[in-house]
Amino acid sequence: MKSRGSVAQQEADARGNFYRFLSNVYLHPLNRELLGPIVDKGFLEGLSALLGEGALADLNDFAATPHAHKDLASLEQEYMGLFSVPAGLYVAPFEDVYRGETMNGEQQRGPLLGERAVAVKRIYREAGAEMERACKELPTHVGVELSFMSFLCKRQAAALGFEQGEEPQGQEDEQVTNPVIYHELQSRFLQDHLTVWFPQLHQSIRANAKSALYRGLAQITEAFLAFDASILQTQAPAHELNGRG
Q1: Closest among 13, 49, 4, 57 to 227, alpha carbons compared
Q2: Helices 212-234 & 179-189, crossing angle to 10 degrees?
């Protein structure tokens, strides 16, 4: 029988993998490797069991459309229109944009590299995360923020492994080897950032996307963020559970 720590470690690692998958679909045009899970029946059924059938409606429609996933050129064009070229169907995938000041009861679009960017970069530094040099996006890009969640999950998994006697990954200090720190950072980042603004981005994608693919990806992203935030808030960190009873 596996210990709770081992199960918690596997769960944190799996969540990190899923956040990495979500990050990649917003940072890059979809290739065959990324499209594979999206049209895989087992993958979609697993997500449906986790998030509910409604959250998978658009992705199921896309997967059921004959040859839709084989036209990579059209999917790349849609990606560029939504996330890269600031014209036409562009949705501006940055937290700053969706969290401007409220005037006359309506939220205005905010400036890039403003106070939201400062807050995001502060928590990145607090967690010991650095943006990859190859990444040209701003720190408030949805793909970067999702990548940060993947980083936190992976660090949590490594810290849980340390509690089970594994060698720490990185500098051996309290932060690297304490899973509670990463649990708390995940919960805070979701509550203060991603779950606050991503629903607005989801609506922009839903209004502008031509295919069911990106509507579906936005749908599962919002559903997973809400689900994960709820779980992190209601469950105690694994090391606390290990110390009870």
Answers
A1: 49
A2: 130
Closest by CA to 13, choosing from 1, 3, 25, 5, is 5
* Rounded average pLDDT over 174-181: 75
- Sorted by sequence, the CB contacts under 8 Å of residue 80 that are 6+ apart come out as 29
pLDDT band, very low/low/confident/very high, at 8 (cuts 50, 70, 90): confident
With residue 98 as reference, give the H or E element that holds it: helix 95-98
Q: What is the pTM of this model?
A: 0.88
24-45 pLDDT, tens per residue? Answer: 999 999 988 889 989 899 999 9
Decide which of 3.80.10.10, 3.20.10.10, 1.10.3480.10, 3.40.50.2000 is the CATH code for 4-242: 1.10.3480.10
Interatomic CA distance for residues 143 and 23, integer angstroms: 4
